[in-house]
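User: Hi! Is it possible to get a structure for several chains at once, not just one? Here's what I have:
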Amino acid sequence: GAVVSQHPSWVICKSGTSVKIECRSLDFQATTMFWYRQFPKQSLMLMATSNEGSKATYEQGVEKDKFLINHASLTLSTLTVTSAHPEDSSFYICSAKKRAAVQWEQFFGPGTRLTVL
Amino acid sequence: QKEVEQNSGPLSVPEGAIASLNCTYSDRGSQSFFWYRQYSGKSPELIMFIYSNGDKEDGRFTAQLNKASQYVSLLIRDSQPSDSATYLCAVKSGATNKLIFGTGTLLAVQP
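Assistant: Yes, the chains can be modeled jointly so their relative placement is included. Here is the combined structure:
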């Protein structure tokens, strides 16, 4: 199998607080995980690529100091939205690439819906 | 020009008909092409991938790729109301593991 989980599935927070989202590969090791953001009626936008044991690579326009990514193990990556504001409200989705799979195989988590009040 | 383009729809087809979804891409170096289905409020799920010119069939789904025209399509035969969703076309960047997504086409299958 190739199951990816995310926690929490939804979160509501106050403006200015930080929120941590976890992405776990449950039955495989993931050397690379990807974090996407999706606003209503828009497509998935890649935010960053997370490699186990190294710094994440952020896409142009994504603030690395605001969206902290940690990929400390082969099964877990975390995204922390620091000092969240209402404009950060979105659907955050992670995906994971199997360690031994062909390069393009990504498995998506169920997503985390963040609402910042 | 967007890297991956899709008609946003909605594409409305009657139950039992063939739904045809289209996608064009700009990077000629792209090697792999994917179709994802996304239900409202859910994350995408992979339906098919294709990387060679021609057709690839899997059950009711057929993916078609024409690299010369930079065009990929998805046909859904015998469309069912449960097929109603947004269909995302994704293209793997030639040199990386990144997937570039189109904006998706909303398909509505009418009972």
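Chain A touches chain B at residues 32, 34, 42-46, 49, 93, 97, 103-104, 106, 108-111, 113 (CB under 8 Å). The CA atoms of residues 6 and 23 of chain A lie 5 Å apart.

User: Great, thank you!
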